[in-house]
Amino acid sequence: MATSVVLAGAEPDFYHTVTKRKGILSWILTTDHKRIGILYLGTILVFFHAAVVLGFLMRLEMLKPEGALVEPQTYNTFFTLHGIIMIFLFVIPIVPAVFGNFFLPLMIGAKDVFFPRLNLFSWWLFIAGGILALTSVFLPGGAADTGWTFYVPYSIRTTTNVIPALLAAFILGFSSILTGLNFITTIHRMRAPGMTWFKMPLFVWASYATSWIQVLATPIIGITLLLVIIERLFGVGIFDPTLGGDPVLFQHMFWMYSHPAVYIIILPAMGVVSEIIPVFARRTIFGYNFIAYSSLAIAFFGSLVWAHHMFTVGMSDTGMFVFSLLTFLVSIPSAIKIFNWVATLYKGSIDLDVPLLFVLSFIVQFSIGGFTGLMLGALSVNIHVTDTYFVVGHFHYVMFGGTGFGFFAALHYWYPKMFGRMYNKGAAKIAWLLSTIGFNILYIPFLILGYAGMPRRYYHYLPQFQTLHVVATVGSWILVLGLGIMFVNLFLALRNGAKTSANPWGGETLEWTTPSPPPLENFDEIPVVTKGPYDYSKYEKAAQEVA
Amino acid sequence: MFEGTSPFSDSVDATFLSIVGISALVLLGILAFMIYFLVRYSRKRNPHPENIEGNVALEVAWTAIPLVLFMGMFYVGWKGYLDETTIPDNAVPIKVTAQMWAWSFEYPNGVRADTLYVPVHTPMKILLHSVDVNHSFFIPSFRIKRDVFPNRETVMWFKTTEVAEYDIACAEYCGLRHSYMYNKVVSMDSVRFEGWYKKASIDQSKPYRALGDLSQ
After folding, report:
1. For the segment A509-544, what is each residue's pLDDT rounded down to a tens digit?
2. Interface subset of B 6-35, CB within 8 angstroms of A
3. What is the dihedral angle through the alpha carbons of A123, A125, A127, A131, rounded to the nearest 10 degrees?
4. Which candidate in A158, A235, A361, A515 could, as Cys together with A8 as Cys, close a disulfide (CB 3.0–4.6 Å)?
5. Is A141 part of the contact surface with chain B (CB cutoff 8 Å)?
6. Which CATH number does the domain A2-546 belong to among 1.20.140.160, 1.25.40.10, 1.20.210.10, 3.40.630.30?
7. In this predicted complex, what is the ipTM?
């Protein structure tokens, strides 16, 4: 570490390295994995905030049973866009594309990813898909109103701009596949000498498992969406019954990707949690191998449970039995992770700093997401609550309470490394408190509403549901206030934050051995790895006494 | 808001509540350990950590115990589902047609109605089809729903246990007025029902035969 501090003065960080391109071109044509990570962060945050605004407006709309704000058609486009943006442009890419890009090479002691130009191309595909999705809103015909699931036959019949939205998701899929491919190759080929598979940080393990799902599952959604486009344009009967197709086939193909996508979404955030806990507990992770293997188990079993989204279509009893059983099995590796994380706090020396606070919210909220998943996995209960607010509450607990808060944790954890400055910790703690409280006030009523029989995607609802809807909407205000404070705080710190050292948290993984922010090629000399990623033995009593 | 009535609501509620109960206990356990560790092993109280790398016995325990619990939940859910799909032989078949954005009902003799009138205590077999897009036939009080498709018939059944009215909702998004696609199940005592059924049969000139006979 001492050497890197000296180097920080000698070599400019990656923001200030002189390259052959200047200004904006030095960004949008860069092949530096760190700049690409920052590009993703900037662009994804724009999409995220747009979708938050849509969600906020949907909650306002739900204040009154007959609707309080917009027309039904507008509301239908709101939840469609909110879903498309949040899924394809936020939760799927946020952790792998931002932190995977920025930190995966740093954590394995590499100078970049294996295919730097492909990496840039992936970002361009991402931007193209994102712009297409946003443009479709303003084209004649109006924004898509199918829900993010594009169920046929409605998506064949509606006159709204379904094709641009499908094409956007198709292009975004390619971006995801190429990023996955890049990470798999990078992890196989570019680990620093001495970094064996079981000396890799757990974030790298999680990224590895995620990348395989991205490569293997994403083509299925690609071809499925393409087939819907072909069906709409040329009337080829694949899914539409009036042309001889089968709408249930669409649902199978859609969920064959979109369920594994849930694990693309959650695994990297789990990796973040596994990184943060040891640093702030100052001790090694509990059950390293179990956490690493559970990522692979999740990736494998997660590919075999897709039809649990379709328990009401009238599947055979065999299908119901198998998909329900596997759904319960896939929750075991997640449970293992949670127990190991909590056990990592045992006999640690814990500093309850901002990133750890977000991680605690993650653990509790993701657990609730998992428990409600068990309720959904039980067949007789599923038949009642599927397609209600219960499901909406459940997946928001996983996607937002889990991955969203995992993203907030990652951002607060790696911010000093990415930007070389520290945000205001007091404001960050207030933001954490408000967003956690707001989140739960918003989504607990969803679970109750769903069990009481409130179906999802409803513009209008029965009067007995109003009280809970109002409570949820008030929760959304607290949540949005928390998010506002969080992002203003982080934004202001870009300029005004105190300069930070190379390793402000005392982390032991390799990214903390580089200056903050790191120089263009990360490491002056490729490090040789001799110990595991979470070796905090120097803080033990015996070690201290020797010193 | 949660009133349920059907052969299934009690068992679905019991399954749901038992999973909620177990989940709440485990969550409280996780929270309790977490908070205790955070306080007991704070950097102030415990400046020197201990690097415990793991414990195979614990890993086995917290894999095996959830596995047993989860298999129990799976089994209870599966049994409940079998009850919901095992249709009594004497159930009265009613054809339900879904379209954007309304439900309509056809009785065995061809009588049509725009509300689902049923005799109390009589098993009804609901045959679902759609004339346009996907819908889903959802009766929250009965804890059951079934998707409705344009190219295949789907089936469900229920039996009311009291004279009352229940909401029918559409649970699969189907466009502009999806959320207005409400209707009612009206459960009547058998005398009143046969009175309605007879009158409707005469009005629509269909041959009347008591539905009660069909379900004997």
Report:
1. 999 999 999 999 999 999 999 999 999 999 998 877
2. 8, 11-12, 15-16, 19-20, 23, 26-27, 30-31, 33-34
3. -170
4. A515
5. no
6. 1.20.210.10
7. 0.95
